Task: structure prediction
Amino acid sequence: MNQYARMIVVLVIISLVAGAVLAFSYKVTNPKIQEQAQQALQQAVLKVIPGAEKMTAVEKQGMTLYIGMDNQGNKKGIAFKTTGSGFSGPIEIMVGYNPREGKLTGIEILSMSETPGLGARIKEPAFTDQFKDKSVSDEFIPKKDVKVVTGATISPTAVSKAIKSSLAEVTKIYPVGGDF
Amino acid sequence: MTQLIKDFTNGLWNENPIFRAVIGICSALAVTTAGQNGIAMGLALTFVLTCSSILVSLLRSIIPPKVRIPCYIIVIATFTTMVDLFMKAYFPPLYQVMGIFIPLIVVNCIVLWRAEGFASKASLARSIADALGMGLGYAWAITLISIVREVLGSGTLFGINVMGQATHWVIMLLPPGAFLVMGILVGIMNMIARKSVKNTHCH
Result:
């Protein structure tokens, strides 16, 4: 075999084998990855809605909302995902909201790539807990009614802005004081 | 056997990728903000490096020299993607922390350096010994950097508070801190190495 044919044959064989191995790994891991993602989502929803034991997803006006219920099927609150633009990438946030009381029930940072030790501390309860029981009519302005993390203003601002703007949408679907 | 031990320890100390060869430091600077990241990244690289070295060594007489680099890259990329997928599936918390750095192992020059510089010329056993040594050499080096940065930056060691409020030097967790810690550690390693060379000259 001349050297050019050999080059092509070897490269093609190596690529084919690599492709097959990867296809197989993907097939093995994909169900597990989906399951993990689903579990993480459910955990986040149940965490931001106190008292919720299970959830159902509903599509309304292009938004995906998760309704949290306790074991008797009593609705405990709704949760939705929102994204803010942080210091070094998007920040995904799960927000719990109780329309009956017009209050937030909690937030959870799902993913972010903020600076470790600075912006990344928005993940800590010291920051996230302050959104619990916060009224949806509040201003959500950092350093005014939102405590910031020492040394970081951009990340808390991104979180506050994202929550405030998505609340404007959600309260149109589920107005304060109304049922859900 | 002594040859194998020599190949193995070469990566741990003499040609340690981080402290002696100063190669592949991009990931070493980026992920080393907490001790567990250092260990996980080190093990991930050791796995990719060992698997790639095994294949490259086995295929060394089959791969035509002119297309060797594309072949190595395909092999390395395959193993890296496997680590990426399996980590995502079975260790999601770890994946959240260092997800973006795993795919970057493909372009980590340590892997290509050992494939091209060693595994493509040596027997299977020697290639494995070399890859394990290099991988673990990388692992202990970045774990050490991680520990120093974690203790100085967040006052914790593997997540356990050891310094109280005494050290919260955020700069240690930022990129400049990585350069500072690594520079000082490389300096210390050079000092130790120089001393041990002097000692052998005395004999």
Notes: Residues 47-173 of chain A form one domain. Chain A has a mean pLDDT of 87. The interface with chain B takes residues 3, 6-7, 10-11, 14-15, 18, 21-22, 25-26, 29-30, 32-33, 36, 40, 111, 113, 115-118, 151 of chain A (CB under 8 Å).
